[in-house]
TrEMBL record:
A divalent metal cation 2 binds at residues 160, 199. It comes from Cutibacterium avidum ATCC 25577. One of its GO terms (molecular function) is hydrolase activity, acting on ester bonds. Pfam families: TatD_DNase. PANTHER family: D-AMINOACYL-TRNA DEACYLASE. This is TatD family hydrolase. It comes from the Bacteria. Keywords: Hydrolase, Metal-binding. The keyword Cell wall biogenesis/degradation does not apply. A divalent metal cation 1 binds at residues 29, 31, 122, 249. InterPro entries: DNase_TatD-rel_CS, Metal_Hydrolase, TatD-like. GO terms for cellular component: cytosol.
Amino acid sequence: MNEAIREVLAEAGLPPLPEPLAAPLVDSHTHLDTVADIVHLDTAISLAAAREVGVTHIAQIGCDVEGSEFAEELARTHKNVIAAVAIHPNDAARLGRKKIGAALKHIDDLASAGDHVRAIGETGIDHFGTTDDEGQALQREVFAAHIAMAHEHGLTLAIHMRDARNGGEGDGPTQGRQAHDDVVDVLDSEGWPERVIMHCYSGDADLARICLSHGAYLSFSGTITFNSAGPQRDALAIVPDDRILVETDAPFLTPVPRRGKRNGPYLLPHTARFVAQQRGWDETRACQQLTDNAFSAYGGAW
């Protein structure tokens, strides 16, 4: 199987399999439907490649109605996968007020589909993809609606936040703070759910302290390996051991040394090993701690 996977990855122009991890690990945020659409890598191959390197459990994240339906079905049919369902802030702005109500109703229905749906997300604020006042106002309203769903269903909330000064996917962590401040403002107004994940954490240590004061988990993607990630590394340094997650956000945000290529859950070992080095952990401890954290963040093992 290993050689067959290597051949498929090579034919697709994707990075090779890294060395397997010393213990099992969870990809706490990925988009296998988008991997299939953009990279043309079958979901079964993505899951198999991940298992080859020790990434045994996946959190599949929805960004719109179709993607949330995919996440729910994948999690329902694969015991090592859980689903998050939501309307991404940029998708909310694109839908507009005439269509957003029906979309949110569908997400609310999916949220009660069963224990395989563990989170509402990804939801939040994005000032890079949505710049007009009406779109940003609608983002805040939809974010508030998602927070209410997380409270109602007792689910984790997976948050996306990106500032207008961010250069876009692949250009490294956010440098501004407006989206971050808006996210905190809405959470303060609506009430922080019991379990909150700051997906692809792009803030600094000051923002980290605010999030941590509410018990949030900070999830670090491949961007933590970038040279531009000084503020994020400062944040990583102050996060308690039990509040750190790692993710791929595949097919985006590929870590060094494979930056510039498309991403997949099988490349998570690069990020995990970097985080372990930053924390002074050996690899086995890192995998065990990060896996325990992911299970806790999503309401229990799966």
